[in-house]
Structure formats: C-alpha cells, structure tokens
Amino acid sequence: MDQKGILIVLSGFSGAGKGTVMKRLMEKYDNYALSISATTRKPREGEQDGREYFFKETEEFEKMIAQDELIEYARYVDNYYGTPRSYVEEQLAAGKDVILEIEIQGALKVKEKFPETLLIFITPPNAAELKRRLVGRGTETMDVIEGRLSRAKEEADGIEAYDYFIVNDELETCVDDLHAVIQSEKKKTVRNAESIERIRKELGEL
Amino acid sequence: MDQKGILIVLSGFSGAGKGTVMKRLMEKYDNYALSISATTRKPREGEQDGREYFFKETEEFEKMIAQDELIEYARYVDNYYGTPRSYVEEQLAAGKDVILEIEIQGALKVKEKFPETLLIFITPPNAAELKRRLVGRGTETMDVIEGRLSRAKEEADGIEAYDYFIVNDELETCVDDLHAVIQSEKKKTVRNAESIERIRKELGEL
C-alpha cells in the first residue's frame, strides 16, 4: 500500500446530516483529518478560531488568494470562504485522509487541481425525510427551510459529478459505509503503482 | 440503492490464495454467488459435476459457444473452459454479487461485454511469500512451481487492467477488504441512477 493519505470532498444537502456523520467518523476511526476552512465572516457566539474556522480579515484572505495558499475559495454574501492548502498537504503527507466539507463549486475546483480527489455526496433516504430533519431542528424559520429545500433541488442536479452516493438513513451504517468507500479507494490499482512495481521487480529477481 | 447484483472478476497469481479467500468470503457473507465454469476436461477424482465444474463433451461445449451461452471461454491444452451465461444472469437478477475466478484474457472479454464488471487482482504481500506458498503446498514438483512463477511474471504485466489490487497477507483482513471493495462499488454514483432520479423527483414535488 502506498502510504500517502487521500483527499476527500464531502458534500450533501443541508439536512443530510453531514456534520453528525463527520463527527462520528472522526470519533470511530483515527485515520481522518477534517480540513478547517478560512473565512472573512465574523465569528458567531461560541465559535473559536482554528476550530470552526480560521477567521481572517478580508485583506489577509485576499493575500492568501494572491499567494495561492488556498486550494479553493468562493465568495458568498460578501464573505470569503476557502480551504487553506498547507494544513491539507501536511495531513496528507502524514498519511491522514483529509476530508473537506464543501459545496459542489468548490468540489469541482478541488477535483480540477487534484484529479485523485474522491468526491462523495451524502443524502437522506428521501426528500420527505430531508424536510422532516430541517423542520425538526426547530432553529430556523419556514422561510429559511424553504430556501434550503430550493437549494437542495439545485444541488441534486450536480450529483453525477460525484464519485459516490451514500444514503444517510441510520447513522452508524452511514459512517461505516463512508469509511469502507474511502478505505476501498486506497485499493485502486491506480493508487498502488509503487506496490505493483515492487512485486514485479521481486518476481523478476526470483 | 438499485437492487441488481454486480459482476466481479477475481484474478491473481497461482499461490495468491484465491481459493481460500473465496471460500471464506462465501462463508462469512451471504450476498455472493460463485460462478461455476464449464469445461471439456475430464473430472479428477473427487470432483463433482456442478460443484467444481460443469463437465461437458466437446460437442456440447461448442454448441454452447455457437448459441452464445458463454460469457467468455478459452482453450487451454486441448480443453475448453468457459463461463455459462444463464447462471450468472439469474444470480445477478436475484441481487447476488457474482464472482468469476478467471484469468486476465477472460477478465478482459467479460469487461468488454459487461463494462460495469469490477476487476479485482489478488496478490500475496511479496514474491518471496508467493514462492513460499507454492513450495509449501508440497504437492507439486519444482518444475511445476517454476512454471507457475514464470506465469506470475507474465500476469504481473497485466495488473493495471484491473480496477483494484488487494493484498492477501492475513486471510480475514483480505476477505473483509474484498467485501468492502465490492460493497463500496455499489455506492458509485453511476450505479445509482435510479435512486438519484427518485430523490430529484421527490424534491421537485415538495
């Protein structure tokens, strides 16, 4: 097995349960690192620099863009969001599988820069369940919920850009499926060129 | 999840432990069916028609070829070997994942006819271990062993034609890896067109 970690993009509808799945994946298996985004938006109550986000001034963020220190970035509603390159590269080199939780536009940019990136889309079992989860949070107005559902319809058009489609019905099953998909990816022939070359060389020397 | 089973070709050096791995996989998980080859070679002692092989007369076998009843076939040393189509198709339709244990020429023919076939190559951890296992069997002359090692060198040239490369070091790990790779394959976006279409339709109707 070649030892470098792999880069994974995880996307999915708001309400698919990505946050819970990621949290449980990190608890259950120790070979993952979760990339932390940089943003220019102000910290909300309880958020901590370097935990939820790396909080940056606009000037700092634009300097990161200029110096190619971000794998991808986007601007939403007057704020920048992006993925710092250094953390991702350090973790991959250390053999960790690094997960970016970003949306499709970012996913496609990452795939362009790093063609070996694994793109995974997480979905609830059906649309009624998605709505139920969004309403069940009880923290958002119906307007916000309608907005998220309308966004989900747009996102659904892009699912074919992803490599894998994982249903989050029961949490533990979803986490184990996600882990199996990522670890199986490491068994791909294209990711084992060194091992294959080694065994060829050994056979030649027998 | 779309419910049809998937077709898997398993190849690997003689001495990689394919037989043991397959036996354990079938014991441990119940969603697999092992395809049984047809052959014109005579049964050896202890072999049973419909268990090790379907034993056929040459005329019968050639009729099967003419009627396109074989997914692939080849002739080795005056005998035909081939994969009967009907069993494979029945098992796939019943949702079983069907495994063919065949060599690279057959693997490539199957992939051509059924592009969604998953090609998996199994290898021992290194060439010294391969030799040790072949010698350890104690049932073959050194001439036969040298022949198998020389064949392994040829086979090693074709590994890149396979999708996955699985090392058989410790049996249970290898079996679980194989299971994870096959089951993860079912999570591929391209294999879930129906489910994706369904959730899109549901979102549109909310």
From TrEMBL, chains A, B:
Top EC class for this record: transferase
Catalyzed reactions: GMP + ATP = GDP + ADP
Gene Ontology molecular-function annotations: GMP kinase activity
Subcellular location: Cytoplasm
EC number, UniProt record: 2.7.4.8
Binding annotation for ATP: G12, F13, S14, G15, A16, G17, K18, G19
Occurrences of domain Guanylate kinase-like (ranges): 5-183
InterPro entries, sorted: GK/Ca_channel_bsu, Guanylate_kin-like_dom, Guanylate_kinase, Guanylate_kinase_CS, P-loop_NTPase
Keywords: ATP-binding, Cytoplasm, Kinase, Nucleotide-binding, Transferase
Main function: Essential for recycling GMP and indirectly, cGMP.
PANTHER family in the cross-refs: GUANYLATE KINASE, GUANYLATE KINASE-RELATED
Family per similarity comment: Belongs to the guanylate kinase family.
Cited HAMAP family: Guanylate_kinase
NCBIfam families: guanyl_kin
Protein name: Guanylate kinase
